[in-house]
Each structure stands twice: as C-alpha cells, then as structure tokens.
Amino acid sequence: MTFARLKMNIVCIKIESVRFIIAVAAILFNITPVKICVASVPIVPARPKTKPASVKTFTAIPQIPFRIFEPVPNPMESNYKALLRKIKCFVFDVDGVLTNGSLILIPGGGQARTMNIRDGYALQHAIKNGFEVLILSGGKSEEVRTRLKGLGVKNIQLGCDDKLSALKNYLWENEMSESEVLYMGDDIPDLTAMKISGVASCPGDAAEEIKKICHYISPFKGGEGCVRDVIEQTMKVQGKWD
Question: Which of 231-236's residues contact partners 24+ apart within 8 Å by CB, and which partners?
Fold first, then answer.
C-alpha cells in the first residue's frame, strides 16, 4: 500500500468516528441528527526529497563593482608645463641640487663635491640658447665657482645668506619678472626665494617643506640629473632643445 493510499484511509476513519460520536450524542440528548458534509480534499503526494537529475541549479554570483583608483594629480604640477613657456632664467642652488649634498673631507681641511656631467651639458646648452643662469649658494667653494665658470655661467653668488633678496636684486637689475624664473632648490634656505618664482622645482630627495610648495618635483635626485631634467623640459616646451 502506498503512503498516499494509507493517508486517505486514516482520514476516512477519522470522519466515520466523528459521525458515530454525533449519532450517540443525538440519542442520549434527544437531538435531531444533522447531516455533516465533509468536503473531499485532494491529497497531494509528498514532494520528493531528491531533485531530478534533469533539473539544473545555478548559484548567483554577486557582482562586485571593480574600480581602479588613480592618484589624484597635484594641481600645481598639472599646469607647470604652461608656465615653462615664460621662463627666461634658471636659478639653482649648489649643494643638494647640482651636487648630491655629500662632502668629501680632504686631509688639511679641504672639501670636495661631485657634479653630474649631464647637468653641466644642460647648463651650457641653455646659456648658448639665450637663457640666464643664476647660482645662489650658501657654500663658499672656489672649486665650484671654477667649474661653473668653465660651463659659461657668469652669475655665481657664493656665501649667499639671503637668497630672496639676492633674487629680487638680480631681477631688478636685469629687468625681469618673477614669472620668468624657474628656481630649483632643495632645502629651507631656498624656501622664500622659491615662493616668489614663476616655477618652483626641486630634486626628488628634497626636504618635505620644499616639496610642498613646488610646481614640479623631479624624479631625479640632487647631483643625479635633476638640473638637466628641468632645463631640458623647459627648452623642449619652447622649441629650443634641438
């Protein structure tokens, strides 16, 4: 006997029991019997616990939004190329810009520095194409002066304690505006002079205070091509590099 058939028989037995109880009650209490109609309810077979092999199920995979985060561009760096079109004068510090900031101590109290050959070529190339080059350094090394003079640099101020005043005087004497100056420095003594310059730039290893005010931060470190970097970019923008 199937489960469905057994279940139907149980329901029928329950109905007959109810009818019997009602009939007995009618005899005992002198009640007129009432016909009871029980609506037949179709019995639905139980749902099989196992799924048919032909039915395929799919698991929904949630779609996770994917976004590539790009660095937010520095607004100062985004427009510095346009500012390079106005540049007529390059101003450079020595230690930490034209050199790597290191000093080699020589017996007898002497000091030696190293400079980058490519930086030297860029300085020569700029001067030959009509750009002014001004060197402002707190150092007093005559060897530095000799090297720069050999590259054609004429405006060299060593032992400069007030670079802001030195820059302003130079601009006044040469009838130039601040917007025509690109200043590359690396540390606090350059800060005030850089703030008034048309383009403030620095080597990649400059002090954080300097980086914060720069229009352009070179990927090259001091003494390793940062001077060549800014000169070449400026001259290329103005069509004078080749």
Answer: 231/90, 231/122, 231/123, 231/125, 231/126, 231/131, 232/122, 233/81, 233/84, 234/84, 234/87, 234/90, 234/182, 235/125, 235/126, 235/129, 235/131
